[in-house]
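Trying the structure run again after the queue cleared.
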Amino acid sequence: MLDSKRHRLARRMKWAARIIGLVMAGFFLVVLIGETVGEILDEGREAIETAGILLGILQGLALLGTIVSWWRERLASILLAAASIGLGIHIAEYAGRNHFLAWLVVGLPYLVASILFLISSRLSRQDP
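Done. Tokens:
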């Protein structure tokens, strides 16, 4: 009885984390691609900056972590935590004001998903 509840909880945590990761990474990658295309059309190739490339790489890392979660939850947790930390560093370096608020919007969801994957992994491995 307790084992089935734990298994159900772990499964729900995995799906919640996957949804958070996919929605966030998908949304920000679409925004970044749209922004890049708009800037290239307006200003040419010189419009692409290092900060934008790094942001795209970090969002891609988060998307990769979410995709990997179907096979390896712990690795997914590590990748999402790395993306969250990387976004925090990126925001501290390149954002103008309200660094913490910007990280809450962009980086915190990946950290929450990472923690959910980690807890789910532990619940799945515990002996009854």
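The two ends are 10 Å apart (CA to CA). Worth checking whether this holds up in the mutant runs.
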